[in-house]
Amino acid sequence: MKIVIQRVEHASVKVDGEVCGQIGKGYLALIGIGAEDTEKDCERLAAKMINLRIFSDENGKTNLSLRDVGGGLLLISQFTLYADCRKGNRPNFLMAKEPVEAQRLYEYFAELCKKDIPDVQTGIFGADMKVELLNDGPFTIILE
Questions:
Q1: Catalytic-labelled residue, pool 55, 79, 109, 125
Q2: What stretches in the chain show pLDDT beneath 70?
Q3: What is the pTM of this model?
Q4: What is the model's pLDDT at position 40?
Q5: 140 belongs to the catalytic site
Q6: 3-state SS string over 28-65?
């Protein structure tokens, strides 16, 4: 499992021109599910992401978590995080989990996050999504 976390001032996702998810201050997380990933991977990385302390405290130190700042979470499925570009110029995605099982794990991941974060929004799995964000920092973290 791969997650690209961007600390944002705000973020939104549109499908067919309609907003289907948006947050203010928080994280935009691009979620890639690999062929070997399981529910245990979802549990471990959801907990890690939620507890990351990457927001500034009153002294300017990155010492506060998403929960500490009351931030939102926008989750976007992103199988392209598993692109293999080693051969040729056209990526293959053989390391990504097949779509039915990837969607199940993506939805499981979102449910885990909702247990700890009141404002969890998602894109639509498999849809052509348009994502907008204002990266805060910029501050980007990759979890695997």
A1: 79
A2: none
A3: 0.94
A4: 98
A5: no
A6: EEEEECECCCCHHHHHHHHHHHHHCEEEECCCCCEEEE
